[in-house]
Amino acid sequence: MPTTSPDNQARAHIFLGIDPGLANTGWGVIEQRGSAYRCLAYGCISTPAHTDTATRLKTIHDELCCVIEKFHPGELGIETVYFGANSKSAFATGQARGAALVAAAGEGMAVGEYSPLQIKQAVVGTGGATKEQVQYMVRAILTLDHLPRPDHASDALAAALCHGSLRGMQALERAVAGKERRDR
Questions:
Q1: Which CATH number is 50's domain given?
Q2: CA max distance for the chain
Q3: What is d(CA 127, CA 149) in angstroms, rounded to the nearest whole number?
Q4: Which pLDDT tens digit goes with each residue over 112-145?
Q5: Nearest CA among 79, 67, 68, 71 for reference residue 107
Q6: pLDDT score for 21
């Protein structure tokens, strides 16, 4: 009788990662089987600045719905909005995030939201990582033969990897918290 390794027996999980932006929304789809990850696809949804905001948000939503329909991810890892010096940019990013979250909610996907620092820390090991370091580690973890481009797509793959690595920890934390409540 042939034997299989635990990684081969592990159920596959498909995650969608999103790096939201009104001008460019990166997306990446990965599969996790045990501790191994592989890239299924990635890309970037670009919307022209001269187009009205509602149309741009509809484009982001509709194109993400097509990605979800094609790959059937069960969960979403999405970057939270960074509120730096440019509040107008943060507001536009928040709107793009909303379009992405509505697309995921329409399919009943579980959502994990992560700060840029959390994503960099999960993928590179330091929250101060550069874009180039993130791209390098995404390439290495997913054993790609090239750097994922544009960087919005690389950041989306990083968000998916972050979700894949942290979801197990989060489930364990929920289980421990539930046990502690039951034991009281």
A1: 3.30.420.10
A2: 63
A3: 21
A4: 999 999 999 999 998 999 999 999 999 999 999 9
A5: 68
A6: 95
pTM for the full predicted model? 0.86
Q: Which residues, including other chains, have CB under 8 Å from residue 28's CB and lie 6 or more apart?
A: 16, 17, 39, 41, 42, 43, 148, 153, 154, 156, 157, 158, 159, 160
Q: What is the pLDDT of residue 169?
A: 65
Q: Domain range holding 77?
A: 6-183
Total structural domains in the chain?
Answer: 1
> Within 10 Å of residue 33's Cβ, how many Cβ atoms?
15
Q: Give a yes or no: residue 1 inside a domain.
A: no
Q: For residue 172, tell me if it sits in a domain.
A: yes
Question: Which residue in 15, 17, 37, 23 sits closest to 154, CA to CA?
Answer: 17
What is the chain's alpha carbon radius of gyration, rounded to the nearest angstrom? 17
